[in-house]
Every structure is written in structure tokens, then in C-alpha cells.
Amino acid sequence: MEVKNQCVKWIQDFFEENGKGCNAIVGVSGGKDSSVVAALCVEALGRERVIGVLMPNDIQSDIDCAKLLVNHLDIKHFTINIKDSVNGVLDQLSLSGIEISEQTRINLPARIRMSALYALSQSNNGRVANTCNLSEDWIGYATRYGDGAGDFSPLAKLTVSEVKEIGRSLNLPKELVDKVPLDGLSNQSDEEKLGFTYDVLDEYIRTGEISDKKIKERIDHLHNLNKFKLEPMPSFEYK
């Protein structure tokens, strides 16, 4: 697949310019995005330069998918359970008299996972992979400074449909490529929570075509509401 080959070359060029000899550090959730990124890095750098990091928050119901991926690729990997870190921050917030919002509970684990990835990266001569895709970024379905962070981003310009095609071309297990993404909290799928499918979103992103006016309005609203996540931090210009 041409796009896959271009992506592999891009990763090679990135490491040649920004981390010659460094390792790719990939947070492995067991979903399609982290699986594809890890597999691309293996093809680009060799399995000896890719490190997978499993980061359950206490018990992860689909941890077997993450284990399947690292075993399939035969890459070095570590498991870092973030439960104590998450609870420690939440406990300190409560002790300070802060009423903890649901959004805080949702986003904190993602930010702690990114801290863990960078801590491990600095101790393993690494560069941290961002595993977000264009479809999710388009509607803000990523945590700023959480899974939205990283040093290099192979999938940022690729839709969910395109990521799946790359996964198939990399011969990843079908259960990883076609796994239904869940939010990890409500047992709802991403698409159930969003109110539209990724196929509809991907078609809209690539062609501008969409038949349902209400879904178009919702996608446009989410995109405009979350564009700031994809833009550089505003900064004062000293003159």
C-alpha cells in the first residue's frame, strides 16, 4: 500500500533528523491506532527500536488486546499501572476541597499516561509516538496534553478508514484493526457517544459530502469547538 510505504519513510526521516538511533515509545491500548503506529515503527526502525507501554488504570478489560499486539510484533514492552497515580491526584484534589468534575476524571488518566510515556522515554533514549488520527482530532476526541501529545504523529492526517486499511496492509490481527473503540467509562462505543459513525465522518472530511443535516451541524460544531487543540498555544508577541 503506497500510503503505508510513505508513512514508513516519513518515520525513518523523522528519526534520522530528530532522534538518530533513538527508540520509538508507543503507548499500547489494544486499539487500532496504537497497533498501527507500533507496526509502522517496527517496519520503519526494526523491532529492536520499538518499545510498547501498556498502561492500565487498575484493571483494563481489554488488556489482552494490548498483549496480543506486543506479542504479535515481538517488541520489548513494559506494563505501568497508573491507578495509584490517578487516585493520588484525585485524593489530593478532594483534600483541597475541590469538587472534581466528570471531565477531570475522564481526562486525568490520559494525561498521567503521557507523563509515564515521557518518563520512560527519557530513560530509554526515546521519542514518544502520538497515536491520534485525523477523524478523532477533527471532532476533538482526544485529550490535550494527554493522548493528543507526542514527538511525532504518523496518523494525524489519516482518517479512521485509512488507518484500518494500513493496519490490514501490515497484516495486523483482524481483532485489533476492526476492534470497536469504547470510551472506557460508560461501556458505550465512540460512535454511540458521538451520535454518528466514523464512516460518515470520514466521508465528510474527505469529500465534504453528508446527507444528514443534523449530523453535519453536530460535526461542524464539534470541529469548531475543538480546533484550538490542533493549533499552537497562543502567545504574546513582544515588540
Automatic annotation (TrEMBL):
Alphabetical list of InterPro entries matching this protein: NAD/GMP_synthase, NAD_synthase, Rossmann-like_a/b/a_fold
GO biological process, one term: NAD+ biosynthetic process
Reactions listed under catalytic activity: deamido-NAD(+) + NH4(+) + ATP = AMP + diphosphate + NAD(+) + H(+)
A GO CC annotation given for this chain: cytoplasm
Pfam families reported for this sequence: NAD_synthase (PF02540)
GO terms for MF: ATP binding; glutaminase activity; NAD+ synthase (glutamine-hydrolyzing) activity; NAD+ synthase activity
Listed transmembrane segments: none
Enzyme Commission number(s): 6.3.1.5
Residue ranges occupied by any NAD/GMP synthase domain in the UniProt entry: 5-226
Swiss-Prot/TrEMBL keywords: ATP-binding, Ligase, NAD, Nucleotide-binding
Taxonomic superkingdom: Archaea
Protein name, per record: NH(3)-dependent NAD(+) synthetase
